[in-house]
Amino acid sequence: MSIERADVLITSPGRNFVTLKITTSDGIVGWGDATLNGRELAVASYLGDHVASTLIGRDEERIEDTWQYLYRGPYWRRGPVTMAAIAAVDMALWDIKAKRAGVPLYQLLGGASRSRIRAYAHASGTDYSALANAITGYKELGFTAVRVQTGVPGLGQVYGVSAAGPGVRYDYEPAKRAADGSAATAPSEEMWDTHAYLAHMPSVFGKIREDFGSELRILHDGHHRMSPIEAARFAKDIEPYKLFWLEDCTPGEDQTALRLVRQHSTTPLAIGEVFNTVYDYQTLITERLIDYVRSAVTHTGGITAMKKLLDFAAIYGIKSGIHGPTDISPIGMAAALHLDLAINNFGIQEYMPHNAQTLEVFRTSFTFDDGFLHPGEQPGLGVELDEEAAAAFDYTKAYLPVNRLTDGTVHDW
Ligand code: GCO
Ligand code: MG
C-alpha cells in the first residue's frame, strides 16, 4: 500500500484550523493537525506547495523514515511552520497505522499506563470574585486543577482573562477577527505593566488558598512576560501558595534564564508551548531546570517527536503537560490524549473544550468525565473531519494581539 493523496483543508468553525488528509491506495484516511494560530496559511502552503507531492507513492507504514525525510531532507529545519507541517504528516500516518491495526493509537504507543487523564481548566476573571466564581464552576464539573488568570488593577484586557464575563467559559480565544467578524488586517494591541502584575498576583493566590483549601491544584501562566530576575522573585514570593506549576515565566528562547529562577525557588516550572523540537529543551532537561514539558504535539513534529522528547524528559524526572488550548484542533488534542494515556511520566493535560461549531466539523470520540479525559477506543486517533460541514466555514484571517508596556514599548505577548 502507499500514499495516494495528501490534501490540505482549511476550515474556520468559529476559529481557524488547518488539517492534512492523507488517503492510502486502499482507501484508508488519516488526519493530521497543522494549525498555527495567526499564521495558518504559511503551514497550509508549506504542506500543499512543498510537502504533499513528495508523499505520493511513499509507503505509509514507514513513519520514522518519513519523519526523517521531512526533517532532514529539506536542509532548512525547525521552526513552528516546518514542525507543524511535519506534525500533521506524522499524526495522519499514525492515524492510518492504528486504523489498519484496528486499535486506538495508544495501543501502538505501548498501551495504557493509566485509566484516566487528569485535566486542568482555564479559570479567569477580571477581578477576584469573577475568578472565584469561575473556579467554583470548574470544580463543580469535577476539575481538580485550574489555571488561574486574573485582571490587574489599572490595566485593561489582560492575557488569559475571558472578556465574556464571569463563570465557566469555553470560548476564550485571543486571536481576533475584525470587530464586525470579517478578516482582520492587523493585530489588536494590549497594554501591560509587569510591576502592577507582580504587586497584585501573589495576593490572588493567597485568597484562592483561603477560599478553596490546599487540595486544589493551582496553575498559572506568565506568558513569557517576566525578566529572569522578576520571574525568580515572583516564583519565590508565591512559594507559600504551593502552585502545581508556574508556566512560561520568562521568554521562551532563553533557556539559561531559568537557571536564575531555579536557584531562588521551589515553585515547579513548566515551559514549551512555543518550542518546536527536543533541542529547545536540551539544557532545560539535562540541567533539570523545568518540571513539565508544555509542547503541543501539533507544533513539535507530531507523535514520533513528542514520544522521544517525553522519554528523554522521563530520564530526568520531568513530566508532561501537553499544550491543549482551542488553537490545537480536536485532531491535535486526540494525539495528545493517546500519548498522555501511554507514557509513564504523564503530569497533567490542558483542556479547553472546543465550541459546538468546531465539534460539528471535527467528530471526536474522546471523553471528559468528572475532571478526567480519555482518548476513547475508536481505531486510530478517534477524530474524523466532516468535509461537508467544514466547507461551510470559510477562512477568516485573525491575529493574536501585540503587547505594549504602558510607555509604548513592544513587549512579549
Ligand atoms: C496556553 C497558552 C495559550 C496561547 C495560545 C496562543 O497556556 O494554553 O498560553 O492560551 O496563548 O495557544 O495561540
Ligand atoms: Mg501558556
Automatic annotation (TrEMBL):
Gene3D superfamilies: Enolase-like C-terminal domain, Enolase-like, N-terminal domain
Domain Mandelate racemase/muconate lactonizing enzyme C-terminal, residue spans: 128-268
Pfam families in the record: MR_MLE_C, MR_MLE_N
Domain of life: Bacteria
InterPro entries for the chain: D-mannonate_dehydratase-like (IPR034589), DgoD-like (IPR034593), Enolase-like_C_sf (IPR036849), Enolase-like_N (IPR029017), Enolase_C-like (IPR029065), Mandel_Rmase/mucon_lact_enz_CS (IPR018110), Mandelate_racemase_C (IPR013342), Mandelate_racemase_N_dom (IPR013341)
Listed name of the protein: Bifunctional D-altronate/D-mannonate dehydratase
